[in-house]
């Protein structure tokens, strides 16, 4: 898959956004890191898939509750209500991006070391249940 330069920058911004959000949570909900992570994540998504597709993704009727929670959580983080904002944002994130978890899980199972760990019997069953992966009939 070939990415344009704009999409490569978008992927980097999304990665840095996730990194800063993770560091912000680990460092006892540091407001600056959380706010920077939110801005980088949303701008990276916009560059990665384009402004029009981003608008349509967030404006879909079945995803409106997730969109409202996600952006309300971002607003709460910007208003210094970090803990409540992250919880509300996480609910919105799960509603928006929850459909991608089985795809991500299958990708991680293809990796050399991580895939072996994720394919262990008890871990596999727990992650399949958590991600909502369906079992094959065959």
UniProtKB/TrEMBL annotation:
Transmembrane segments: 9-29, 35-59, 66-84
Keywords, in A-Z order: Golgi apparatus, Membrane, Transmembrane, Transmembrane helix
Record carries keyword Membrane: yes
Localization in the cell: Golgi apparatus membrane
GO biological process, one term: endoplasmic reticulum to Golgi vesicle-mediated transport
A cellular component term, taken from the record's GO annotations: cytosol
Membrane disposition: Multi-pass membrane protein
Family designation: Belongs to the GOT1 family.
Protein name: Putative GOT1-membrane protein required for ER to Golgi transport
């Amino acid at each position: 898959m070939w990415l344009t330069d704009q999409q490569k920058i978008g992927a980097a911004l999304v990665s840095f956004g996730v990194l800063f959000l993770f560091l912000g949570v680990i460092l006892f909900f540091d407001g600056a890191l959380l706010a920077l992570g939110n801005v980088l994540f949303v701008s990276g998504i916009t560059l990665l898939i384009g402004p029009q597709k981003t608008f349509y993704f967030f404006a879909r009727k079945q995803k409106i509750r997730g969109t409202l929670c996600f952006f309300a959580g971002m607003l709460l983080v910007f208003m210094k209500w970090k803990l409540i904002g992250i919880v509300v944002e996480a609910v919105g994130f799960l509603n928006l991006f929850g459909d991608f978890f089985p795809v991500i899980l299958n990708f991680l199972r293809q990796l050399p070391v991580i895939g072996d760990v994720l394919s262990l019997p008890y871990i596999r069953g727990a992650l399949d249940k958590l991600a909502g992966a369906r079992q094959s009939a065959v």
